[in-house]
Amino acid sequence: MDTTHDLRLQCWVASANGHDQFPIQNLPFGIFAPEGGRPRGGIAIGDSILDVGGLVANELLDGDAKAAAAAAAGETLNPFLALGGRYRRALRRAVSELLSAAAAPARLRELVHGAKDCTLCMPVEIGDYTDFYAGIHHALAVGKLFRPDAPLLPNYKYLPVAYHGRASSIRVSGMPVRRPHGQIKTPDSPAPVHEPTKRLDFELELGIWVGLGSDLGVPIAIAQAHEHVAGYSLLNDWSARDIQAWEYQPLGPFLAKNFLTSISPWVVTPEALEPFQIPQPPRQAGDPQPLPYLWDESDQAHGSLDLDLEVYLATETMRRNGMDPERISLSNSRHLYWTVAQMLTHHASGGCNLRAGDLFGSGTISAEDGYGSLLELSKGGTEPLQLANGERRTFLLDGDEIILKARAHRAGFASIGFGECRGTVVAG
Ligand code: MN
After folding, report:
1. What CATH class does 3-121 carry?
2. Can you say whether residue 231 is alpha, beta or left, with left for phi > 0 and alpha for psi between -120 and 50 degrees?
3. CATH T-level fold of 129-426
4. Ligand 1 ion: Cβ-proximal residues, 5 Å cutoff
5. What backbone torsions phi and psi does residue 342 show, to the nearest 5 degrees?
6. What's the rounded Cα separation, in Å, for the pair 203 and 55?
7. Would you give the end-to-end CA distance of the chain in angstroms?
8. pLDDT digits (tens, 9 = 90+) for 162-211
9. Stated pTM of the model
10. How far does the centroid of ligand 1 lie from the alpha carbon of residue 205, in Å?
């Protein structure tokens, strides 16, 4: 930890002091467009956004920090992510100093835009998207629905299971969720029909951004894996369960998941999350020891994150009656059976190259008593979820809005948040 994590730092952007998401200790990166302006790199600070490219144009930076800011000034963060940790940390230190300075020059104050007047854009041009399945309580709960006697398949505790997803349909928070059509075959009908899904679901996931890439044919040693992670966002892997049930065998999800994936707009850096690193929870007695290429003592000691993850639901009726969204799930990223370093190492271990701007989904993160999907909350659609206003849900109805949130806290440190990942279902 360094001075950028100091709880006593005060920021001259007044809304940042005590801000529950974006205090000066967070400094996440994103792409924003001020009213009437072109998209550009920014850093969230309180209720505002700092124009990163403006720091270069106004000669407020030098050295690695200047190079990093220049790379983050364009319409995507890819060139910045590709630079890796040394440059990212230099820019974080410099921006922390600039935003906490006792006297900020006018040319610096002019680079701060009110977030409410800005549009948040896709932060990254995503090359490839891979969705893991590392949430152990999700894998157990879903497995039990289909295989009560053996919920986990034999590979689960030996390798981080994943499938290659679709990058083209990933969108930033706020994109409406158009109910997809697909082939649906109920058990009692002889043939499928093509119609809108009746079992539309969300999945609460952590998104992981690749920074430094790797070369084709060259594995990444697990001790170096963390150097390839550029940051984290929230990710909602919208899923059509009835389409999925018919199409997924033997090759995995296809149209059931490629109609839309939503991400939160801010990339929260590994540096901001340093105070919230925790040991990977020990494996249960009897679980296999991971193979050596997936095992690193330092990763086991620091490779998990303590992030509270929440899902809120706002129905059309709730909105009409002026009710706040209702929290339907509380989970934590510590419920990932594999560390991010293990996922990344396994991904590259066969020779697959990674590129700056690739995105991983962690897999749905459920707690033992906090489920990250309606499939689990409604026990496969058999027990409707009861909402406080009397409404019930097995799966999502048109007009339902899902809001994902994440927050990290630890005594002696400033709490930080991820912002929000929102999506409202519209008729297909
Ligand atoms: Mn998923």
Report:
1. mainly beta
2. left
3. Fumarylacetoacetate hydrolase; domain 2 (3.90.850)
4. 131, 203, 237
5. -65, -40
6. 38
7. 49
8. 999 999 999 999 999 999 999 999 999 999 999 999 999 999 999 999 99
9. 0.98
10. 7
